[in-house]
User: Which sequence fits this backbone?
């Protein structure tokens, strides 16, 4: 077998990149056209773009509200998730206690569990707690996101805390720190890179989540963006101009987050795989 | 490392456990219990049904169609997504200055909301291939195109990370010894990549068993059964038909399938390692 030369290799790669990106670019430039412009030319950008679709989606279809809902639920959940995850990661990584192994296995199991096995009971629990409407339903959804992202977060952070040299912790204890003091003043600042990685990955996962939002959000006003965009596309019978604008709005924050934190996100997603 | 003993560690793990166990572990037990009953969601109590839901499941043609479609998804991910991801990673390893840009472009679908992926492809397909979209024979292949589009870049990035851990001197030494590219790939690169290959295969198998979003949004059950998966069937039986006991039995079958899939891969890779050493 002969190795491909540099130019043919690059051609194949650029072609793959172009094929991958085209659906997204198509979505973006279609959202900047009127339906008349779309009718004239479906596959290429138009020379005179318009933001009219975005105005309709953002104001009349209340996407400003869905954007706020998504930002609130993602931001709030990730903050609590990192705190609880770091506490538990420190506990699992640097202590021994009775029942540790069993509890650890329970946390690991969450990495493989099909969420469908919890949909019906959680749907019932939501009704029992009377959290089916408005902000209550969003808060309940947030709690679910918290629980379902703990496995990955604790797993990742435990690995990080285990690798910290003993001397750092011992020195702090000699200085009279309590265990929580060591955690708060030494471990947490040290783990900032690991917290960034898990925070970014969790933010993307929570922003994108669909099936729990589908089952647990009932009000048309209290919806996250993925849930809202699905309903909106149905209501407009997949109107090309409006649907692509709503889709672009849903995607935009993720792309910004990804471009800003790409290095961290990829490192976090691949870290587990390399360790085996 | 000298670990500290006592109850302190448990106190650190407790807040997470208090959130995690009631919302994840307990519902799992609830689902298993419900799978042994019949319930429409309205009646005040469940009706005991023993293994009735499971025996109905075995005689349910649609359940087997759904399971077959999940197996097809597993097959396609192992035969198409993983090899393409590996090929792209190998090409990208020495792509020079454009490496970062190309890697980002191919990886980006993985981080997008699945709803967006499903709707974009739905819009594209209804315009580009209107006669195929909605055809019972073609729906599943079209859905698989969208799913593969999402995952190839993810596997590529895993393999790139794996390839980066391989010492280039190993391959250079083999070249000096006169080994061909294929021999180097077969006897050096591939064996060293094995841990990453196992991880990506495990993720692909378990992910294929759990699959829901793109299929639900792209096809929405039309034409009937053409794209049915275990997860969409569980969802319909539960939340549309209100057969919560039956839906729970499907969910339990999914958990069992995910465990079985992970177990088979684990065993298969262990056996091979054992034979070689």
Assistant:
């Amino acid at each position: 077998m002969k190795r491909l030369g540099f130019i043919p290799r690059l051609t194949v790669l650029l072609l793959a990149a172009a094929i991958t990106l085209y659906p997204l670019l198509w979505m973006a430039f279609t959202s900047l056209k009127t339906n008349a412009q779309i009718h004239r030319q479906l596959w290429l950008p138009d020379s005179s773009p318009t933001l009219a679709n975005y105005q309709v989606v953002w104001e009349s279809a209340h996407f400003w509200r869905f954007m706020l809902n998504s930002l609130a639920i993602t931001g709030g959940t990730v903050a609590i998730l990192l705190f609880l995850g770091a506490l538990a990661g420190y506990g699992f990584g640097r202590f021994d206690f009775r029942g540790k192994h069993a509890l650890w296995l329970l946390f690991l199991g969450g990495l493989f569990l099909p969420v469908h096995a919890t949909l019906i009971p959680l749907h019932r629990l939501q009704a029992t707690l009377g959290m089916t409407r408005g902000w209550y339903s969003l808060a309940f959804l947030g709690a679910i996101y918290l629980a379902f992202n703990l496995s990955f977060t604790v797993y990742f952070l435990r690995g990080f805390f285990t690798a910290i040299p003993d001397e750092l912790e011992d020195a702090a204890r000699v200085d009279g720190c309590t265990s929580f003091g060591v955690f708060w003043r030494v471990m947490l600042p040290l783990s900032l890179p690991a917290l960034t990685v898990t925070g970014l990955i969790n933010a993307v996962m929570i922003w994108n989540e669909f099936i729990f939002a589908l089952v647990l959000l009932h009000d048309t006003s209290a919806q996250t963006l993925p849930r809202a965009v699905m309903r909106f596309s149905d209501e407009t019978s997949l109107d090309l101009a409006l649907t692509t604008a709503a889709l672009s709005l849903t995607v935009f924050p993720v792309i910004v987050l990804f471009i800003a934190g790409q290095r961290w996100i990829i490192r976090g997603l691949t870290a587990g795989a390399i360790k085996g | 490392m000298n670990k500290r003993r006592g109850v302190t560690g448990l106190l650190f793990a407790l807040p997470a456990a208090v959130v995690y166990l009631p919302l994840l572990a307990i519902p799992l037990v609830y689902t298993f219990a419900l799978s042994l009953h019949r319930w429409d969601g309205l009646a005040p109590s469940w009706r005991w049904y023993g293994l009735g839901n499971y025996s109905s499941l075995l005689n349910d043609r649609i359940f087997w169609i759904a399971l077959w479609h999940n197996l097809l998804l597993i097959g396609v991910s192992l035969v198409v997504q993983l090899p393409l991801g590996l090929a792209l990673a190998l090409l990208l390893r020495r792509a020079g200055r454009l490496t970062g840009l190309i890697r980002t472009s191919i990886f980006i679908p993985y981080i997008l909301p699945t709803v967006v992926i499903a709707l974009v492809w739905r819009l594209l397909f209804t315009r580009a291939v209107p006669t195929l979209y909605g055809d019972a024979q073609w729906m599943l292949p079209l859905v698989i195109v969208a799913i593969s589009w999402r995952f190839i870049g993810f596997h590529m990035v895993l393999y790139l990370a794996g390839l980066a851990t391989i010492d280039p001197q190993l391959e250079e030494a083999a070249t000096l010894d006169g080994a061909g590219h294929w021999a180097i790939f077969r006897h050096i690169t591939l064996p060293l990549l094995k841990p990453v290959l196992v991880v990506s295969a495990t993720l692909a198998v378990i992910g294929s068993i759990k699959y829901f979003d793109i299929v639900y949004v792209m096809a929405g059950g039309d034409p009937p059964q053409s794209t049915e998966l275990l997860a969409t069937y569980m969802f319909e039986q539960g939340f549309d038909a209100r057969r919560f006991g039956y839906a729970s039995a499907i969910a339990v079958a999914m958990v069992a399938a995910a465990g079985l899939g992970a177990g088979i891969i684990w065993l298969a890779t262990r056996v091979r390692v054992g034979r070689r050493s």
In short: Chain B has a mean pLDDT of 92. DSSP finds eleven helices and two strands in chain B. Residues 39 and 154 of chain B are 41 Å apart (CA to CA). The radius of gyration of chain B is 23 Å.
